[in-house]
Backbone:
């Protein structure tokens, strides 16, 4: 999807999915060759104007990797809000960041960590990258700046070194969270 905000210094909302699959005892992270940037990156994309960030995760996963939420678990902090009245609670990203796409355009990104039980059951959508690589922590660390961005390496190192061995994060089915665009019940000032 093209950028929504095209004026100088505007921000688009985006999501990035870090997908780990266990290969023996060694976790492997899914990277793909971004078709426009020509660098290895985790899959991700824009949050469209008519969707929640979690709905964007669902559609970008399918488009870019072929994965469905039914095939994945998501890492979540053990201490987290799981429900609230009259709203839809979404999964917590493990990080949120803002980065420059160009000197005058920015993405504010939510980063999610998934655990795959198998390879995706479907191919990516037509026109998406098909150059996928399952990479160990050492593989990602060995990439140079012509192959990936240093900040991607920083996030990958954090995933491998801090989140995967953490005892304060746990896996839950990715389908535990609703992707539909539910509207919270409106509370008028008189009802407050």
Residues:
């Amino acid at each position: 999807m093209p950028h929504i905000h095209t004026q100088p210094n505007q921000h688009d909302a985006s999501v990035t999915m870090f997908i780990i699959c266990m290969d023996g005892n060694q976790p492997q992270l899914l990277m793909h060759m971004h078709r426009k940037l020509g660098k290895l990156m985790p899959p991700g994309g824009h949050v469209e104007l008519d969707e929640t960030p979690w709905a964007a995760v669902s559609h970008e996963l399918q488009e870019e990797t072929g994965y469905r939420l039914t095939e994945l678990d998501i890492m979540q902090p053990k201490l987290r809000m799981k429900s609230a009245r009259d709203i839809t609670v979404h999964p917590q990203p493990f990080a949120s960041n803002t980065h420059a796409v160009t000197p005058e355009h920015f993405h504010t990104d939510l980063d999610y960590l998934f655990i795959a039980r198998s390879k995706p059951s479907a191919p990516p959508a037509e026109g998406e990258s098909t150059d996928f690589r399952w990479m160990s922590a050492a593989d990602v660390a060995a990439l140079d700046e012509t192959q990936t961005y240093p900040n991607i390496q920083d996030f990958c190192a954090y995933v491998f070194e801090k989140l995967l061995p953490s005892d304060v994060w746990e896996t839950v089915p990715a389908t535990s969270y609703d992707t539909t665009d539910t509207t919270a019940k409106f509370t008028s000032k008189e009802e407050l």
Summary: Confidence is low (pLDDT under 50) at residues 183-192. The longest helix spans residues 150-163. DSSP finds three helices and nine strands in the chain.
